[in-house]
Design a protein that fits this description.
The chain is of the alpha/beta class. The radius of gyration is 38 Å and the shape is elongated. The strands form five sheets. Strands 3-2-1-15-16-17 form a six-stranded parallel sheet. Strands 18-19-20-21-23-22 form a six-stranded mixed sheet. It has a five-stranded mixed sheet with strand order 7-8-9-10-11, with helices on both faces. Strand 20 and strand 21 form a beta hairpin. The chain has three domains: 186 residues, inorganic pyrophosphatase (n-terminal core); 173 residues, 3-Layer(aba) Sandwich (Udp-n-acetylmuramoylalanyl-d-glutamate--2,6- Diaminopimelate Ligase, Chain: A, domain 1); 120 residues, DHHA2 domain (Diaminopimelate Epimerase, Chain A, domain 1, Roll).
Length: 550
């Protein structure tokens, strides 16, 4: 089965991230990857929500994490047996299925026990001298295994243990052989030997099995009925019937009741722990309702995952959806600094210092000679306009302007008007619902040496609302810094009309001495002309941290 290819942006995605994922997944589907799926690692922020709703574009699939789960490598067509399955039928199932473990299921499809080839072989190939004659079974199971028939009554499903004797000698010798045993514990098996049949009936044995499909004489049948002796006829010869009788035991009478289980939604790492800690070669994987989903073995840990990733608008695992480090990454499209780890095999890595990932995705459409539909063109245009702050950000390049010009024609939109409408409709801190949500809606972490900082950014029109919420935003920054163990946590509040930023920061107090921007009050800096976190604030902040280290 062809794997699913998730095209996904970073955590706390902005419009550029989600727009790039949606558009590039669509391009992949149109160019030979039908199972390409747009995904997101966080909920859309108010700006992105407005754009998706305005353009009538469904949300990407939300992936809280991509940690490989038990379900991802599980064979969902396990070979199983029921509780009334005989040992002979279990041997057939082992052979036909090529498996080493058989789950024993109850009537509701839930595991009742487990049967291994080793357990079965020990049961029948290594019987103790004390029990070599014993057969534990039910009359129904014995009749089914011997292809015979027996009467229907309440006893045929009760477990019984019988001692097997083969009547292949003179009647006198046979009577002497069984004389020391309780006749109600005896199973006598013989062919067309009237004398043995009669001796068994007169002795009052529990069960007489007549092989070769021979019917006892009518007078012996009448005597058996009078004495309450059950007779079973089988078409098999005596040697075959004796072998099959030993294999007539229902697995419910000897299956192991103790077995390891795991939920299909649990991580593969948990399965690895269970397999290494258990002596059993397998673990039973269960659905949420407790029914069997499959049998997981050590080979399950090596099975290829049914999905892979394309990362857009980021290339660092620290910013990727949780679990990305354990999943194959097939492609990266990004416009940030390189911070990616090594890959197992060569991948397509598209990067360029442009203002928006959507510019690069628009270029991929052009390279493939595929024209985006009107909604996709508008979505890509929105990604460019928001990430470059209406093409005013210092990150903006001619490539961004060219892509925006081309896309506004395909989308039948005026880029300037469209951009202003987006920011006018969404540039309010209160749209986020809470101070923490406003900070974390577009929050990225950066590391310099031993220091890790986190910076969020929101765009506004005017700072009045910010000043009203300043204290709650500062409190939220303090909580985030403490929770994540950050050296500094900050929020860029960027006025797209005035083309400047107020930077609210919580953390290391000595940073004020080296910031090089006016500190208008404690924790707050004025940064005129600063619009870009990537190109302006972060490089400056990393330089500041270098000075602190010195």
């Amino acid at each position: 089965m062809e794997k699913t290819l998730y095209v996904i942006g970073h955590r706390n995605p902005d419009t550029d991230s989600i727009a790039a994922a949606v558009a590039y997944a669509g391009l992949k589907r149109r160019t030979g990857t039908p199972r390409a799926v747009a995904a997101m690692a966080g909920e859309p922020n108010p700006q992105t929500r407005y754009i998706l709703d305005r353009l009538g574009i469904p949300d990407p699939v939300y992936l809280a994490d991509v940690h490989p789960k038990v379900r991802d490598t599980l064979d969902r067509a396990p070979v199983t047996v029921g509780m009334d399955t005989t040992a002979y039928q279990a041997l057939e199932a082992f052979h036909a299925g090529g498996v080493r473990t058989l789950p024993v299921l109850d009537g509701d499809g839930k595991p009742w026990g487990i049967l291994s080839q080793l357990r079965l072989s020990e049961q029948y190939l290594l019987p103790s001298a004390e029990h070599q004659r014993e057969i534990t079974t039910t009359l129904r199971a014995l009749a089914r295994t011997l292809s015979g028939t027996t009467g229907e009554d309440g006893e045929i499903d009760l477990p019984i243990t019988l001692k097997l004797f083969i009547g292949a000698m003179s009647a006198g010798s046979f009577s002497d052989r069984i004389s020391g045993y309780d006749p109600r514990e005896l199973l006598v098996m013989t062919g067309n030997r009237r004398s043995i049949q009669q001796a068994a009936i007169e002795r009052g044995v529990r069960l007489l099995v007549v092989t070769g499909d021979h019917a006892p004489d009518p007078d012996l049948l009448a005597l058996a009925a009078l004495r309450g002796i059950r007779i079973l006829r089988t078409p098999h010869d005596t040697a075959t019937a004796a072998w099959l009788a030993r294999l007539s035991t229902p697995v419910s009478l000897f299956a192991e009741r103790k077995f390891e289980t795991i939920g299909v939604g649990e991580p593969l790492t948990r399965l690895r722990q269970k397999l290494l800690a258990s002596r059993d070669p397998s673990v039973l994987a269960l659905e949420d309702d407790g029914t069997l989903a499959g049998v997981a073995t050590k080979s399950s840990l090596l099975a290829p995952l049914p999905y892979a990733l394309v990362l857009v608008d980021h290339n660092e695992i620290a910013q990727a959806v949780p679990g990305a480090e354990a999943v194959e990454i097939e492609e990266v499209i990004d416009h940030h600094r390189l911070g990616n780890g090594p890959t197992v095999s060569p991948i397509a890595f598209v990067t360029s210092p442009v203002g928006s990932t959507c510019t690069l995705v628009a270029g991929r459409f052009l390279d493939a000679a595929v024209e985006p539909d009107r909604a996709t063109a508008a979505l890509l245009l929105a990604g460019i306009l928001t990430d470059t702050v209406l093409l005013k950000s210092p990150t903006t390049t001619d490539a961004d302007r060219d892509a925006a010009s081309r896309l506004e024609g395909l989308a039948k939109l005026d880029a300037a008007v469209f951009g202003r409408e987006i920011f006018a409709a969404t540039s309010s801190l209160r749209h986020y619902g809470s101070a923490a949500r406003a900070i974390e809606s577009d929050f990225k972490r950066f590391r310099h040496g031993t220091h890790e900082v986190g910076i969020g950014q929101v765009e506004v029109i005017g700072f009045d609302e910010f000043h009203e919420m300043k204290q709650s935003l500062l409190d939220a920054l303090a909580a985030i810094r403490k929770r994540d163990g950050l050296f500094v946590a900050g929020l860029m509040v960027t006025d797209i009309a005035a083309e400047g930023t107020l930077f609210l920061v919580e953390g290391y107090t000595r940073i004020a001495h080296v910031m090089e921007y006016p500190q208008v009050e404690p924790h707050l800096y004025e940064m005129k002309g600063v619009l870009s976190r990537k190109k302006q604030l972060v490089p400056h902040l990393l330089k500041v941290l270098s000075r602190l280290d010195g």
